[in-house]
């Protein structure tokens, strides 16, 4: 799915690393790199980018513990929640943002699109926000 998102946004070369960590680790990364003193669901970091060449390097790091907790709330598998986190983080890497209500709505629309391409759908009434 990461490759599809990258290609859809004009990136055809590069490297994206995906990592699954626990809450203490993602908390530590959130403090170290964003100065946010709390665990989060997903972090993404663009390491290098050349949109003219269609090249992008980045990292997406997701919390398995947060995914497990949130998945229980929405009655879907934790693995699917993790997929959502990786979609969300990759959308950030290609330049999408969710800082406003309008941008967040657009981001959620794109998340839903990529989930559907995998044959997955958000739980009914899922108003959850991936940060």
Descriptors:
alpha+beta, Collagenase (Catalytic Domain), 3-stranded mixed beta sheet, 5 helices, 3 strands, 48% helix
How would you explain this protein's 3D organization?
Strand 2 and strand 3 form a beta hairpin. The chain is built from five helices and three strands. The chain has a single domain, classed as Metalloproteases ("zincins"), catalytic domain (Collagenase (Catalytic Domain)). The chain has a three-stranded mixed beta sheet. The mean pLDDT is 94. Helix 3 packs across helix 4 and helix 4 crosses helix 5. The protein has 131 residues and is α+β, with helices and mostly antiparallel strands.
Short description:
With about 130 residues, the protein is of the alpha+beta class.
């Amino acid at each position: 799915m990461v490759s599809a998102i990258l290609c859809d946004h004009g990136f055809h070369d590069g490297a994206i690393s995906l990592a699954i960590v626990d809450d203490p680790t993602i908390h530590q990364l959130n403090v170290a790199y964003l100065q946010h003193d709390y665990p989060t669901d997903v972090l993404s970091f663009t390491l290098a980018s050349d949109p003219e060449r269609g090249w992008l390097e980045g990292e997406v790091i997701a919390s398995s513990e947060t995914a497990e907790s949130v998945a229980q709330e929405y009655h879907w598998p934790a693995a699917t929640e993790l997929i959502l986190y990786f979609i969300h983080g990759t959308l950030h890497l290609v330049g999408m943002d969710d800082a406003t209500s309008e941008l967040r709505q657009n981001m959620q629309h794109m998340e839903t699109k990529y989930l559907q391409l995998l044959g997955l759908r958000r739980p009914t009434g899922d108003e959850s926000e991936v940060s």
